[in-house]
Design brief:
The chain has 152 residues and is mainly β. Helices cover 12% and strands 51% of the residues.
Length: 152
């Protein structure tokens, strides 16, 4: 009986430790803290108001190969589990069965007032990716950025 109680207590201790573990592969930066060490790093730009935990969802217009597209933020970070691949933008006005996600942005260069990126548009049908992507370059004004999430 003592052995069962001891094993139960030890098991409960380890389960508690396992449940308490969180994870993240994201580092958060203020736009003013961006420097040349972040060039060529993958990022997700949180524009407008800070969207931690998906509390505030902002929209933004981005020119993609000459065509203006509107996107909204998909944020899945709760302060405990924050995974880079779960942060992206979704195109608002997709009239087809295909959804479009802006993901895998990489910082190309920085100026005092702008962040220049190369990004990838990925296309999905019923949440399954298809073999088509669009790679394009664009920029954000630093004044419109709340945070920059850098992939660790």
């Amino acid at each position: 009986m003592k052995r069962k109680i001891g094993l139960t207590i030890i098991g409960a201790f380890f389960l508690t430790c396992l449940m308490a573990q969180d994870g993240s592969n994201i580092k958060y930066y203020e736009p003013s803290d961006l420097d040349s060490s972040l060039i060529r790093k993958y990022c997700h730009v949180d524009f407008g108001e800070e969207s931690l935990g998906g509390r505030i969802i902002d929209t933004i217009d981005i020119k993609v190969q000459g065509q203006k597209m509107r996107f909204y933020e998909h944020r899945k970070d709760n302060g405990f589990n924050n995974w880079f691949n779960e942060q992206y933008l979704i195109r608002v006005d997709d009239r087809s069965q295909t959804s479009t996600r802006l993901q895998n942005s990489r910082i190309d260069s920085l100026t005092a007032d702008k962040v220049f990126l190369t990004s990838v548009l990925s296309y999905y049908v019923n949440e399954s990716p298809i073999d088509t992507i669009t790679v394009f370059q664009h920029w954000y004004d630093r004044k419109n950025i709340s945070k920059v999430l850098i992939k660790n």
